[in-house]
Amino acid sequence: MIAIGADHGGYKLKEEIKRYLDEKGIKYIDVGTYTEERTDYPIYAEKVAKKLQNKECDKGILVCRSGYGMTVAANKFKGIRAASIYDEESAKFAKADDDINVVTLGGDYLTVNQAICIIRNWIATEFKGGRYQERLEMIEEIEKENMK
């Protein structure tokens, strides 16, 4: 299950991504926003992060104008590994090497086709484990020490 959210700058792209997910039969929860009226991206980053933390979803997609604000906000939540992704190759590496569980996208910089290719590759890629898992465990220790 994927949690998907966007601010006003990412709303249109989010709606196109939802169409793709519907076509592929991929289940998701849309946490908003539901219009192009101005709103603040941290609201939706938090909603998506909480869906993952509460185990209601195992992946997240966030969209704002650049993708960067969503990345910063989402990574403030324990257990979230968010990355701004701008191409298919980085989507594969983000998942394979770092088990990125939240993809953030820039609505001003990606076409619908590019965003769908990113999501398709991210979903299809398996985490490598092994030494990469050891690195994630190191990150978890950092979280324990610094995210009280």
Annotated CATH topology: Ribose 5-phosphate Isomerase B, Chain: A
Number of domains: 1
Total beta strand runs: 5
The named CATH superfamily? Sugar-phosphate isomerase, RpiB/LacA/LacB
**Into which percentage range does the β-strand content fall?**
5-15%
Helix content: 40-55%
- Any idea what the radius of gyration is? 14 Å
Distance between the termini: 28 Å
Please identify the structural class as seen in this structure.
alpha/beta
Global morphology: globular
The low-pLDDT segments are none
Give the H and E element order: EHEHEHEHEHH
**pLDDT averaged over residues:** 97
Instruction: Please identify the top-level CATH class.
Output: Alpha Beta
Number of DSSP helical runs:
6
Largest sheet: 5 strands, parallel
Taking strands numbered 1, 2, ... along the chain, how are they ordered across the largest sheet? 2-1-3-5-4
Architecture (CATH level 2) name: 3-Layer(aba) Sandwich
Describe the structure.
The chain is α/β, with parallel strands linked by helices. The protein has a single domain, classed as Ribose 5-phosphate Isomerase B, Chain: A. The chain contains 6 helices and 5 strands, in the order E-H-E-H-E-H-E-H-E-H-H. The protein has helices spanning 11-24, 41-53, 68-74, 88-98, 112-124, 131-146, and strands spanning 2-6, 28-30, 59-64, 82-84, 102-106. A 5-stranded parallel beta sheet has the order 2-1-3-5-4, sandwiched between helices. Helix 1 links the parallel strand 1 (2-6) and strand 2. Helix 4 packs parallel to helix 5. The radius of gyration is 14 Å and the shape is globular. The two termini are 28 Å apart. The mean pLDDT is 97.
